[in-house]
Amino acid sequence: MFEHVKMNNMTWQEFAKKKDDVIILPIGATEQHGPHLPLCVDSVIAEEFALRIADKINGVVAPILSYGYKSKPLSGGGPLFPGTIDLNGATLQHLVMDLIDEFVKDGFKKIYIFSAHFENEAFIVEAMDLASAKHGDKVQLLLTNWWDPMSPDVIDKIFTEVPFPGWALEHAAVTETSLMMYFRPELVREDAILEMENAKPGTYFRYPIEKDIVPETGVLASAKSSSPEKGKIIVDDAIENILKIIDKAFK
Amino acid sequence: MFEHVKMNNMTWQEFAKKKDDVIILPIGATEQHGPHLPLCVDSVIAEEFALRIADKINGVVAPILSYGYKSKPLSGGGPLFPGTIDLNGATLQHLVMDLIDEFVKDGFKKIYIFSAHFENEAFIVEAMDLASAKHGDKVQLLLTNWWDPMSPDVIDKIFTEVPFPGWALEHAAVTETSLMMYFRPELVREDAILEMENAKPGTYFRYPIEKDIVPETGVLASAKSSSPEKGKIIVDDAIENILKIIDKAFK
Amino acid sequence: MFEHVKMNNMTWQEFAKKKDDVIILPIGATEQHGPHLPLCVDSVIAEEFALRIADKINGVVAPILSYGYKSKPLSGGGPLFPGTIDLNGATLQHLVMDLIDEFVKDGFKKIYIFSAHFENEAFIVEAMDLASAKHGDKVQLLLTNWWDPMSPDVIDKIFTEVPFPGWALEHAAVTETSLMMYFRPELVREDAILEMENAKPGTYFRYPIEKDIVPETGVLASAKSSSPEKGKIIVDDAIENILKIIDKAFK
Amino acid sequence: MFEHVKMNNMTWQEFAKKKDDVIILPIGATEQHGPHLPLCVDSVIAEEFALRIADKINGVVAPILSYGYKSKPLSGGGPLFPGTIDLNGATLQHLVMDLIDEFVKDGFKKIYIFSAHFENEAFIVEAMDLASAKHGDKVQLLLTNWWDPMSPDVIDKIFTEVPFPGWALEHAAVTETSLMMYFRPELVREDAILEMENAKPGTYFRYPIEKDIVPETGVLASAKSSSPEKGKIIVDDAIENILKIIDKAFK
Amino acid sequence: MFEHVKMNNMTWQEFAKKKDDVIILPIGATEQHGPHLPLCVDSVIAEEFALRIADKINGVVAPILSYGYKSKPLSGGGPLFPGTIDLNGATLQHLVMDLIDEFVKDGFKKIYIFSAHFENEAFIVEAMDLASAKHGDKVQLLLTNWWDPMSPDVIDKIFTEVPFPGWALEHAAVTETSLMMYFRPELVREDAILEMENAKPGTYFRYPIEKDIVPETGVLASAKSSSPEKGKIIVDDAIENILKIIDKAFK
Amino acid sequence: MFEHVKMNNMTWQEFAKKKDDVIILPIGATEQHGPHLPLCVDSVIAEEFALRIADKINGVVAPILSYGYKSKPLSGGGPLFPGTIDLNGATLQHLVMDLIDEFVKDGFKKIYIFSAHFENEAFIVEAMDLASAKHGDKVQLLLTNWWDPMSPDVIDKIFTEVPFPGWALEHAAVTETSLMMYFRPELVREDAILEMENAKPGTYFRYPIEKDIVPETGVLASAKSSSPEKGKIIVDDAIENILKIIDKAFK
Question: Which Gene3D superfamilies does this UniProt record tie to the protein (chains A, B, C, D, E, F) (predicted)?
């Protein structure tokens, strides 16, 4: 459905013609998402958003980065869960820097990074800062996720049955589960969605990591009340706002 | 008043005796804080908290790191203001890693990092993660700031005249100004505190940085209604909660 | 068809059960492949081989690395073609090192890297060497591509109409085109396959890169006579031999 | 007394006005200095010199770096003493490079680094070399300590009772003790100053470090005969000569 | 005999006059070469070729790099043999980058690297790529070895008694032994040349390295039938072809 | 004459037998030494000392590192002279670390580094410190040069006609020239030895480097009165003292 915006499918001549358009780099993660969601949640969400946005703005979507920065206990369950594959910060940073350099060499001037994994942010921003110092004013770099641009009233539409636990705890919870029900229903094990108490938000970082501060399932807040419809509400609202950000950022 | 907890003042023999106690590393920043506060705000706050906490727990305070990670427009005004001195992320990370290694070599097993600059967090945590992988279970590392451990009801006590703008915009605003009035009143230019509209919280990162998204003064929300009494409320509450965290983390 | 071997589709509990099996990391590239093939050729080939091999040995396939090391003029057309996205060697090396570390932390002891892009090899091997020094004898690391394990007589079966130009020049030529016709026929632009003279094999490296040593199309030898049947011959033979290598390497 | 030259005390607007003046970065160390001096000796000396020099030349003093490069046995007692906190060379180098970059971004063109810890020198110079290659002729970088610029005849005035043991062994000895008596008498434990034989100067480096080549106290030559008056002689003479160097270097 | 082309022998004034000529950097290795050849084989060959080429083109030969990148089992015997001294890839890369930078600072624009150790290639090329990105079109960088430029028919002249085992296995075998007999006969232990079966070419990389895939002597194919005359044939042919490459590369 | 101690000349089996002996790594530099000495002075001196010492202690001499750390104006003339080829500090450090690691892998436990270039010291020591932290007490590392171990009275024997200018200025002056007359008389241009005034010792570091602080010839003090006999005096005395250091260090 969105095959036409994928860089992967293009020949080099087709790709060369896109250089004045926006190139979107989706960055996800490979990270535990409890017993009801697969390890690819953040990557699926990043790619699906990227494709829909590219479709709207005539952009091109570069191959996704499927591995992200280190999951933290109280925003993603943390490194002790099998299947959570954590890059070092420096590795992610250099990966993003190299890709920005290469897109610029190919003539692109509008580079939009979409990250669906909270922990990625600081190291992507560090890469953008250093890349921007190198490439100057002619190259414009943008980073968003899907939750910060959401309209405040969407929270109310989504959290009709359970209270909003705060974004940090929205891991494998209502929003991500709803998004996966919308994007890839076949990958959601609905019968494994459990009633549970929310984890307590973190107020500090401690190493070695304390195992008992994360629920054993890896889910930080209940995914009960998730639905594909809620997924669609999030997607539609976030994309609408993101298009405005893109418009302003790449003016 | 807190001279007895400063590592700086100790001879090596005196310091050697402290190795079973908690060593506190304060990390601040050198960063613009508008026309009414000096560049040292984050460093003063980090050190003053560290000294008071050390005094309570019989700890020792290591020399402060006065330079921090890169200020961002909508949490600190960003790099375009003179006086904002930004370390690269890798530099801060290696600095913290080296210091942890050295404290461990000197026999310390309880290392507490206190950061008063939001942007430092990701790179300090990366350093802690890598240091912990190296030193294993015998060494316990803790990081807090002063805002996350605060009791929720303190917000209500502080924001009696102006609404709480969110932590990101609390830069050179009521909380930091009140803390400086409490810690170092002689460094606060009270007549330079202005009425102003809050900056709008950031929902994306864009490079090169857009100059027009930060107020010209560098202040992100009004510091009106700040007072040393409010500073004391914050300090007393945060320290009380931090002592509980320390107790749990270094059990 | 191979969904059951994809790590991406597993929950963390499902993935945790695979730890005594072989985990396969496919590494491709995003690189020009002339006017008849898309930029994803090396990534498609890497992933399709990985899936088939995993299916045979009850393994698990980790998410692919879609960006590889720098394309060279006389083995891939080189960096001057748009769409060829080159990582620095150090970046690829650290990426692979981080992933090996993480697989090992999750309990895996048999890690098989499949690369379909010649230029990746030296930096993957450097990563393996350093990772092996760290993890010791308990962790076994294996790297293959698809061309070195092929039986010598397959060359004769494939190159029935055009002479074998040597592996370096087999870029976007008969073998890769046949593989793509077998794996993803819808991505092959058959009418763009041209008669052409082979490029001359490189006997030196020169920088800045000489533009005139690579054909303008980016194809190094004619893809004429490619067919899905030839693709299947390669796949069947290479996998048979790779299974023997795996058997020996992970005994 | 020197509060007006401290960058720490300035608002960003005040700091911005100083950009055509000299900015001084003091670099000290946290290092054992025997039983009669505190760990902050090198930092106190670096900062006190920097303040006095800034006062003379209308300069500005940036926050001090309180941690330095690795102490060596026969110039500082070495790493085996608790309280000696050693940065890796690369860390110090990158720290200095980042700070030079940031001062330059803020418009400064005359950057003066004052180090009071011998071992820092090679890594500061490496940072200066690389920063200078980046910033070119418009930015002038200067490094001094306090001992190399001293007039030769000052040695005679200081070493009236004990012979000059050479600069390497002047660790926690007459010159540093006299400087501390002048700058911070309250931190000197005069009754812990001992008669002792000098350590033997080093003629080689050996690892692991031999414990028996450094006196158990960490003092390398006797501090007997130290006095605040001698401290003043050193300060006055060194500053006079440093002002000439500054004048020549930043012409 | 070639003393006049050695940079080592020149004063700085003599060297300064050569800046418009070609500077040649030979890179060898310190690596086991069986019981009949010394550890310096690759370094001797690199230097001897470099001297002869410099003599023909009025060039200058920089001091050799005697340590190279990691030997691999089936192209050099690998790291398990004593005397094989392996640099990390990053070390070799930075070494070459630094030297290119320095030759350029001294005014050289034609820099030719001659490597006689196969494994060096990828990391030298990475250094050249990054250096070229820095120095641009004015600086021309060339890399060759001695085997790729050889005329195909020379193989037939050399392998009269034993079949050509492929270049990977030509380690301490006929070509290298013949070259050493020609360049340094006194270093060849002829009576230690053994009849043997060839090692089997590698089709994969496996770590930890399998000891049993390399013959115990470290020789990968028999050196029987080596002679100084064959060494001369190789040298004469390779140099003739290399001169043409140089001519084209530095036009 | 010393061919039997050169690692270069040994087969791997011969080298393997030396593992309980001392391995010596000579480190020189490629650096201007005025109009009367060649660029290889520091390398020749390093190697010649290493060979003689190895001969005395039954050691083995590894291939020399011919490139060293950055020459400084007032100890070596500095980087502005053609022919002075400067490695970055990090490059030299990693080179030495890699070599120590490799010697240790080959079973050596007594590693002696001989440097004949002053500026190398800090980065070699950093490498030794980090390598020692890795290898622990079983591996002993030693570094000397030739001037620090010299007996004080040798100065009087050498400086009979010109006064000793201090070691920093002994660049291309009496000691180095005498050593070269002793080791390699054919490389000394005696008629280019000039009367001259000494350079003034440095008391600070300034970048960009001031050209006028170094004599135009690159010689820092007159080499008049040099002789091979004086070279022999230095060699004999330094080696005698170095043998005692070795004895103590590797006990």
Answer: Creatininase
- The pairing of beta strand E68-69 with beta strand E60-61: unpaired
Q: Which D residues 29-58 touch B at CB under 8 Å?
A: 30, 32-40, 43
How many C-beta atoms surround the C-beta of residue F105 within 10 A? Answer: 15
Interface test with E, best of F8, F12, F95, F99 (most E CBs within 10 A): F12
| Best CA proximity match to B68, nearest among B45, B88, B48, B51 | B88
For residue A81 the two structure tokens come to 């869960």
Q: How many CB atoms lie within 10 A of CB E198?
A: 16
Angle between helices D228-249 and D174-183 (to 10 degrees): 90
* Domains detected in chain E: 3-249 (3.40.50.10310)
CA-based nearest residue to F23, from F176, F121, F142, F186:
F142
Residues 187-226 of chain B with CB under 8 A from chain D are 187, 189, 192, 218
Measured from the Cβ of residue F241, the count of other Cβ atoms closer than 10 Å reads 18
pTM over 0.95: yes
Euclidean distance between CA atoms A242 and A53, whole angstroms = 8
**Per-residue pLDDT tens over the stretch B37-86:** 999 999 999 999 999 999 999 999 999 999 999 999 999 999 999 999 99
Instruction: Work out the number of other CB atoms within 10 angstroms of the CB of residue F179.
Output: 27
Q: Which two tokens stand for residue A247?
A: 């418009």
A143 touches chain B (CB under 8 A): yes
Q: Which of C160, C192, C184, C153 is nearest to C174 (CA)?
A: C160
Say if A11 is an interface residue toward chain C (CB within 8 Å).
yes
Could you tell me which chain A residue has the CA closest to the CA of B241? A203
The per-residue pLDDT for range C156-170, each reduced to its tens digit, is: 999 999 999 999 999
Q: Rounded to the nearest 5 degrees, what angle is found at the Cα of D223, between the Cα atoms of D217 and D224?
A: 120
Shortest CB distance from B94 goes to which of D7, D19, D94?
D94
Question: For C122, which of E122, E131, E143 is closest by C-beta distance?
Answer: E122
Cα(D221)–Cα(D167) distance, integer angstroms: 10
F122 in reach of chain E (CB within 8 A): no
Model pLDDT for residues B122-156, shown as the tens digit of each residue: 999 999 999 999 999 999 999 999 999 999 999 99
Q: Is F207 helix (H, G, I), strand (E, B) or coil?
A: strand
pLDDT of residue E251: 82
Interface membership of F111 toward E (CB under 8 Å): no
Q: Residue C212 class from Cβ within 10 Å (0-12 exposed, 13-18 middle, 19+ buried)?
A: exposed
C-alpha span between B212 and D69 (Å, rounded): 41
Q: Which of A33, A36, A170, A237 is catalytic?
A: A33
Distance CA B87, CA F78 (A): 30
Identify which of E55, E188, E71, E64 has the alpha carbon closest to the alpha carbon of residue E120: E71
Q: Residue D105 in 3-state DSSP? A: helix
Interface touch D83/B11, C-beta < 8 Å: yes
Q: Which residue has the tokens 């967090």?
A: B121
Question: Which chains are within 8 Å of F by 3+ CB pairs?
Answer: D, E
DSSP string, C76-93: H--TTSTT-BEE-HHHHH
Q: Write out chain D's pLDDT in tens, 251 residues.
A: 899 999 999 999 999 999 999 999 999 999 999 999 999 999 999 999 999 999 999 999 999 999 999 999 999 999 999 999 999 999 999 999 999 999 999 999 999 999 999 999 999 999 999 999 999 999 999 999 999 999 999 999 999 999 999 999 999 999 999 999 999 999 999 999 989 999 999 999 999 999 899 999 999 999 999 999 999 999 999 999 999 999 999 98
Query: Is A117 in the active site?
Result: yes
